[in-house]
Structure prediction request, 204 residues.
Amino acid sequence: MYGTFYNPNINGINDQNNSFDHTQDTFKAFVDAVIPRSPKLAEEFGRIQYFGALDLHVDEYMIMSLNNYYIPLAKPTAEILDIAAEQLVFMGGNNRLFNYLRFPRGGIFAALSPGDRFRAFTLLVQLNIKLEDLPEPYKDNPELVLSITSALNRFTMMGYYSEWSGYGSTRLMEPNQRVLEYFPLSWNQVGYPGPSLGYRALRE
Prediction:
């Protein structure tokens, strides 16, 4: 077990602005672990393959999606990620030292290395945490915890590979006000030509 839970940058976490900052940095840390920048892929397949989830603002997509539930879930979801991270550290399961520099407004989850973030997240997936210690609406609600862990992976992929990044400066507007300002970078990465009424396919 390494490090300490103390982060001098989040002493005012109960303040509304600091709470949002903490939530945002937590999801930045999450999506960065799932889809990081890939310099080795860029060397092999071209610069377009370098960019990761943070470059496409997938953390904003995550927060928006979670807050579109019947109650806003972004903040309590960030909190349960921190609780899982604390549990990991108490179990001696983190392999690296904490680093509060990259996501300074986040908590212990964001301070973990990417690999340790996955280990903490796995505790949630396996329900290897004290459900009674979780904030509402997750407290003593294993079904919701399992549902949201599945959604976090799904939202990350949807935010990255959908048209989200192409909305540019309009991405946080109401859906009917968004404009596709440019071709999504992730579509270029995978060679997707964009939506069409149909594509030709060879059928036997």
Summary: The helical segments are 16-34, 39-45, 58-66, 74-90, 108-111, 114-125, 142-161, 185-190. The two ends are 58 Å apart (CA to CA).
